[in-house]
Amino acid sequence: MGIMLVGLLLGWCPGALALNPALDVSQYAHTAWRVRDGFTRGAIFALAQTPDGYLWLGTESGLVRFDGVRTVPWQPSAGQRLPSNFINALLVARDGTLWIGTTKGLASLKDGKLSLYQKVGELNISALIEDHEGTVWIGAYGNSGGNLCAAGAGTFECYGTASFERGVVALYEDHKGSLWVSSTNGLWRWRPGTPERYKYPRGVTAASWMVEDNSGTLLLSTSKGLEGLVAGGVESYALPGIAGKFTPTGALRSSDGSLWIGSWQGLLHLHEGRTDVFKAVDGLSADFVAPIFEDREGNVWVGTQDGLDRLREVTVPTISRKQGLSNSAAWSVLATRDRSIWIVTADGLNRWENGHVTLYRSQKALGQSGQKPEQEFSVGRAATEIVNSGLIGSPSRSEKINGDECGLRPASACSTSKEVGLFEFLECLADTHFQSAAMMKGASG
Question: In the CATH scheme, what architecture does the domain 20-316 have?
């Protein structure tokens, strides 16, 4: 439960189909479809969208088509079959072809016709991308050696078996048009020019995916965590606001500029210099996140071991304790001329401005909370606490607090025109609410 900031936030209108990067994941509209409810027959490992708008899901039990309401398992024509029902990778090329990577080979689907590719044999297809020239690159992996293949206009060429040891794990094309190949023997910049290999640091065997941050640094998901390619070397990469180790599993750079990272510990969202996390306890279908995909409407889709999640834009976002409020239950709200929002909760007075919350508490409230009396200290990434202070400009001044004149709607016992201190007013308001709640509980008992 939180506060809906209607007047202030309705003024934001997206100029393109994308999420508002100023919001946290918890502020987007979220819908989850779960395996336990019969959505699919297994975990989802790949996502893609065809020109007709259908979303395609690659699962451990086959290929599934989703129209936003119901799922339909895809069935091949008589005499046709996929190399395997366990699907690792999906890609919709610019010509509308759906490329399907399975644990035992490669297939493509175009105009209802299924095609198989014998050149890759029964290798595990680990990665599919389309470069800026329209070439589809296929990464293959296997105990007997892997491969890198390229499918162009009427051509299909494979090469590099000796270069990649057991195989290709991930593929990525950066903003400069360079093709990067993650293999079991290092990181390769394959094109343009002569292939160049970068060694992994000790303890790293391969990168399961690659993506760029805002500065163009190539990020890698490894067994040691998140790494970055900096000055020709692979080194640890820290996300702002994230302490401790997490295990990344996938990533997406969405059209709004945000970086989405899947992990064993939930979905991480890096935006505007800060990171927030969305987990199963917040409503995500599961903590283990595999594919992350952005559709043509700007919605972000997340596949997990237990279902599928969609995050989409909302007209009126909410703010709550997750965004730094002292309490998600708001008693009174006041908008002021400086475009800030003042919010009264049971834990004090909050001022919300441009995504940052400043919390004003009395010395008494601070003592009850067990915190040390300091002039100012951080209470979270989006909040600052001011101890025993008052309104901006006159922190210790007494103000005329009147429910009618100030636009607040406190309990009648505290709605007075006499001059009182701000925190005495808040304490009176809190006491009144608590007494009312106690009386109601006693009456009901």
Answer: 7 Propeller (2.130)
